[in-house]
Amino acid sequence: MKAWLREPLLHFLVIGGVLFALYRFVAGEEEGPREIFVSEAQVEALAANFARTWMRPPTAAEIHGLVDDYVREEIYYREAIAIGLDRDDTVIRRRLRQKMEFVSDDVAAAREPTNAELESYLRSNAGKFVDPPSLSFRQVFFSTDRRGGAAAEEARRALAALTAGSGLDNAAPAGDPSLLPPEMTGVTPRDVANVFGEAFAADIEDTPVERWIGPVESPFGSHLVRLSARVAGRLPPLAEIRTVVLREWQATRQDDVNEAFYQGLRRKYEVRIEGEFGELLRRQAGRAEPATAGDGRS
Q1: Fewer CB atoms inside 10 Å of the end CB: C or N, the chain?
Q2: Cβ neighbours of residue 159 closer than 8 Å, sequence gap 6 or more
Q3: Helix (H, G, I), strand (E, B), or coil: what is residue 146?
């Protein structure tokens, strides 16, 4: 008798019986078998997925195995939902939320805007699409590391020589070699600031074209600068940037649709938040009804 009680098969049967009894207790009694319908399209999808993975069509036996596995998955899925195994699983909750958001994303992407709508969006959000101004300039550098406090004064003397007519070609030899670019072409004020610093970019932004100015200071030293071109910022016409405007319009519309979809769902629920924080939220919302101790509603 003792040997029989030590049999692993007996232990397995007892554990299985306990689990089944527990499951029936949690899930409740069933009124009869529930149907699982496997459509022809689902079988074809299973076969197509197999073919993509293994680079060949499945055999009849393999299709039978695929369908069996699909049915097994469906049964486990239904029974897991029935006994609430999805409720406390963060990964499943997030995945289901994601799928609900995909529903509203599809609604948002379903309609193509008219040109008039895009034109209106472009004008209302011009700051997103304006081409920034651009500058082209040449600079001559006087290093404070090499010249110390005399760098600015020597830059002024070089500027005076240029202004007196010594010529553009004489400017470069008067300066110091450096890794800073001697010229920049078609760059934005932000590009200039990234290389020479904010103060330098601000000082040259509105200077006259085709005239040497200086000294203009940077964190590296003093500079003489000559602008060769300045192009004002502009808002391109819709025809030039329609793809960009469409993408931004769709993103904005998707946000609006997603929020409207959520708010429609949210109205179906009353949310109760317990504790001091919940009470604080209730007071901030200005609810007139008295709250139960320890509860807050939002």
Answers
A1: N
A2: 212, 213, 214, 215, 224
A3: helix
Instruction: Give residues with Cβ within 8 angstroms of 117, minimum separation 6.
Output: 249
Give 226: exposed, middle or buried? Use CB within 10 Å, 0-12, 13-18, 19+.
Answer: buried
Q: Are residues 253 and 284 in the same domain?
A: no
Under a CB-based contact definition with an 8 Å cutoff, are residues 126 and 235 in contact? yes
Mean pLDDT, rounded, for 188-205 = 94
Cβ atoms of 117 and 173 within 8 Å: the answer is: no
Residue-number span of the structural domain to which 217 is assigned: 132-231
Tell whether the torsion through CA atoms of 211, 212, 213 and 218 is positive or negative: positive
- pLDDT tens-digit map of 208-253: 999 999 899 999 999 999 999 999 888 999 999 999 999 888 888 8
- Say if CB 132 and CB 205 are below 8 A apart: no
pLDDT category at 116 given cuts 50, 70, 90 is: very high
Q: Is 142 exposed, middle or buried (0-12, 13-18, 19+ CB in 10 A)?
A: buried
Helix (H, G, I), strand (E, B) or coil at 188: coil
- Select the more confidently predicted residue: 84 or 17: 84
Residue owning tokens 């649709």: 257
N-term to C-term CA, the chain? 64
How many Cβ atoms from other residues are within 10 Å of residue 272's Cβ? 13
In a domain, 164, yes or no: yes
CA–CA distance, 157 with 155 (Å, rounded to integer):
5
Average pLDDT of the chain, as a whole number: 80
Residues 172, 212: Cα–Cα separation, whole Å: 12
> In the numeric block, which tokens belong to residue 121?
């969006």
Whether 32 shows a pLDDT value over 60: the answer reads: no
Structure tokens of 74? 């469906």
What is the identity of the amino acid at 144?
Answer: T
Give residue 72's pLDDT.
86
Within 8 A by CB and 6+ apart from 226, the residues are 137, 138, 139, 168, 171, 210, 211, 212, 213
Residue listed under structure tokens 């040997």: 3
Q: Tell me: do 138 and 221 sit in the same domain.
A: yes
